[in-house]
Amino acid sequence: MKISNEQRVKKVGEPRPLRESAAKPCGIALTHHQPPTTKRGVGAKQEECAAMGAEAEGPAVSVIIPTYNRAWCLRQAVDSVLSQEYKAFEVIVVDDGSTDDTPRLLAEYAGRITVLRQANRGVSAARNAGIAAARAELIAFLDSDDLWLPAKLACQTGFFASHPEALICQTEELWVRNGRRVNPGKRHRKRGGMIFEPSLELCLVSPSAVMARRELFDRVGCFDEALPACEDYDLWLRVACRLPIHLVPTALIVKRGGHADQLSSGWGLDRHRIASIRKLLEGDLLSADQRQAAVRVLRQKCAVVAGGCRRRGRPDEAACYEGLACTAAPDP
């Protein structure tokens, strides 16, 4: 299904302001939503007319795919979206200054996707540009090295139809590393509900698994463009300290890892997590219990980073983190 009449290729500068605001079994009760079927005849004609009407009103979901020099895997990611059983969506690919074959590849999807191009500013700026350009009230993200299974959008739109109070949900996921299926460790187990404290240790929310209402970003802000990595950890902490993050307990994405350009594969990622926790401690969002938990994890992470710095012959940086751990206090 065509999402727009022509592929929109734009240069991105300052993002425009945000607007205010039963498929296969999914392990949840789905109500008020049935995805398109392949029936023919009168029923199929009625469904086709309904779909055309929905498209005329605009997409129900905006799918945002940030990418940088990933022509080697981008096609599979885009195709996994275009193959969704649920069809009322638009696809926005944000090319963050790619110098490989990405522009030529994206040109093959003319008429089916929107392409935004910008100078290389990082994944946070790319996702934020996509959020600003999105037309739908539901927003979903897909990293360009991940894949969606066909029922992903159907299950999550069904979840929001039956949970109008929810602002964000994520799905379970399958892990593939270097082409082989692997099982996540227990510490990576997905949780649902108020998950702030367990999320302090490590990121428990995958961008590719998330769907959120636009209102969420109006309330908590977007991705922090100052962070070169762990930008997702930072945003989900800002969400989790005040809102439940719901879980659809079915694996609907394939999370692929092990490649050299993976942002989460570098040393010292806890430095960025420490920066995120410090921001929260400097604000007034946290409850007393949340502040206590944040300080505890901050001290632990400072000790880990300090040890790594000393092993790498960086004693001054180690001393900085050791000092930070000593001065961190639960009280604002």
Describe the structure.
It is a single chain. By secondary structure, the protein is of the alpha/beta class. The protein has two domains: 9-265, Spore Coat Polysaccharide Biosynthesis Protein SpsA, Chain A, CATH 3.90.550; 269-327, no CATH class. Helices cover 39% and strands 17% of the residues. The chain contains eleven helices and ten strands. The protein has helices at 42-56, 71-82, 102-107, 123-133, 152-162, 196-201, 214-220, 231-240, 269-282, 288-311, 315-327, and strands at 9-11, 61-67, 89-95, 114-117, 138-141, 147-148, 168-177, 180-182, 210-213, 246-257. Strands 1, 2, 3, 4, 5, 6, 7, 8, 9 and 10 form a ten-stranded mixed β-sheet that branches. Helix 8 (231-240) runs parallel beside helix 9 (269-282), helix 9 runs antiparallel to helix 10 and helix 10 (288-311) packs antiparallel against helix 11 (315-327). The chain is globular.
In short:
With 332 residues, the protein is α/β, with parallel strands linked by helices. The protein has helices at 42-56, 71-82, 102-107, 123-133, 152-162, 196-201, 214-220, 231-240, 269-282, 288-311, 315-327; strands at 9-11, 61-67, 89-95, 114-117, 138-141, 147-148, 168-177, 180-182, 210-213, 246-257.
Total strands: 10
CATH top level label of the largest domain: Alpha Beta
From the spread of the alpha carbons, the general shape counts as globular
CATH topology-level name of the largest domain: Spore Coat Polysaccharide Biosynthesis Protein SpsA, Chain A
| Helicity, as a percent range | 25-40%
Mean pLDDT: 84
Biggest β-sheet strands, sense, barrel: 10 strands, mixed
Name the helix and strand elements from N-terminus to C-terminus, one letter apiece. EHEHEHEHEEHEEHEHHEHHH
Structurally, how many domains make up the residues?
A: 2
Query: Approximately what portion of the residues adopt beta-strand conformation?
Result: 15-25%
Q: Taking Cα atoms only, what radius of gyration do you get, to the nearest Å?
A: 21 Å
CATH-derived architecture of the largest domain: Alpha-Beta Complex
N-C termini distance: 53 Å
CATH superfamily of the largest domain: Spore Coat Polysaccharide Biosynthesis Protein SpsA, Chain A
Number of contiguous helices: 11
Name the poorly predicted regions. 1-8, 10-54
What class would the helix/strand composition place it in?
A: alpha/beta
